[in-house]
Amino acid sequence: MLVEPFVSFCACHNIVSEDDIPTLRYCIEKRLYSLLIYMPLILLGSLISNHLTTVSFLWAFSYLRRMTNGFHAKTPFLCFLGSFILFLFVLAFAMKEYPLWVILILTSVSAMIIWILAPYNHPSMNYSTDEISACKKSAKIRLIITFSIMMVFYLTSESRIVNGIFFGIILVAALLGIAYIIDRRRQHAYFRKEN
Fold this sequence. Notes:
The chain has helices spanning 3-12, 21-48, 51-68, 76-93, 100-117, 129-155, 159-194. By secondary structure, the chain is an all-alpha fold. The chain has one domain. Helix 3 runs antiparallel to helix 6 (129-155).
């Protein structure tokens, strides 16, 4: 694959420390798979929904997810496949216009989940306490910015963009909640096994 030669080069030339090699590998794979997902998704999403909804959804999702983290698939391929299917499913729902009260309630619930739970410290990321604190602050700022942008587009009657951002926020909150639920179940199973 393309990743290993680059990672080996960085390791051989001491560009990254030995401890950071798994993180470098993960980050490069993540970027490559993001490109592989987003390019065809914008094309197919535009057919299912429309290009404004698709792009605004991907922007909101990516912008928030970068600081919140959340559920991750076990392998990059499963991430690619799962993300692609999930994004197309969400975009199919984003075709419909929703009343303001639905948008406000679901966005408020999603925002509370993100505000309280973000970021999820995924075992592959292994954030320090300072990094978690910085991500928590950044996630809150990004959430406020995203919500504000959504409301500006609502006031300008651009429902296609509102729906994309709306579903981006909901999906970030859902994946964040799922990560915590899975983590809690693992801890509970481990605790039961110990006793």
